[in-house]
Design a protein that fits this description.
Putative NBS-LRR-like disease resistance candidate protein 2; 3 strands; elongated; 2 domains; Disease_R_plants; 3-stranded parallel sheet
Length: 168
């Protein structure tokens, strides 16, 4: 984790969500599903997409709601998915949504995407050493490179954080 998947998905969401009739950004699906259960999260997603407070509370979505979803072009972001069941309950496949609908899924487990039949996978690459040091310096030293005596400490911090400057 920590490569910026959620940040990238959020930027895309902010940039294109106005092109859709219904939108939902569901953060921390893994953690939220453990706390509240998938049906609760699914009800929140449907409430946001249909812009009304829905508390279905059962695994099966009523037909009248399914029909409304099929007529709506929606944009959904499911963040930090780690289980195929989460995708089955929360997304169920694009066929249940209107034409032109899109779903972005962030995950650490590419196999979940393959099992769900995702047709486009974008992998976020980590920063190279110089980029990581620059970003760390931007945050830790307000844009300046570290003083020579702090450079070695900065490198140790980056190594400890596996090259992820924002995790440090």
């Amino acid at each position: 984790g920590g490569l910026g998947k959620t940040t990238i998905a959020g930027a895309v969401f902010n940039q294109i969500s106005s092109q859709f009739e219904g939108c939902c950004f569901s953060i921390n699906v893994r953690e939220e599903s453990e706390k509240y259960g998938l049906v609760h999260i699914r009800d929140q997603v449907l409430s946001q997409l249909l812009e009304e407070n829905l508390k279905i509370g059962t695994p099966v979505i009523p037909q009248y709601i399914q029909r409304r979803l099929q007529r709506k072009k929606v944009f959904i972001v499911l963040d930090d998915v780690n289980d195929l069941r989460q995708l089955e309950v929360l997304a169920g496949g694009l066929r249940q949504f209107g034409k032109g609908s899109r779903i972005i899924i962030t995950t650490r487990d590419k196999q979940v995407l393959h099992c769900f039949g995702v047709n486009g996978i974008y992998e976020v690459e980590g920063l190279n050493y110089n980029e990581a040091l620059q970003l760390f310096s931007d945050y830790a030293f307000k844009g300046n490179h570290p003083l020579e005596h702090l450079r070695e400490l900065s490198i140790k911090v980056l190594n400890f954080a596996n090259g992820n400057p924002l995790a440090a």
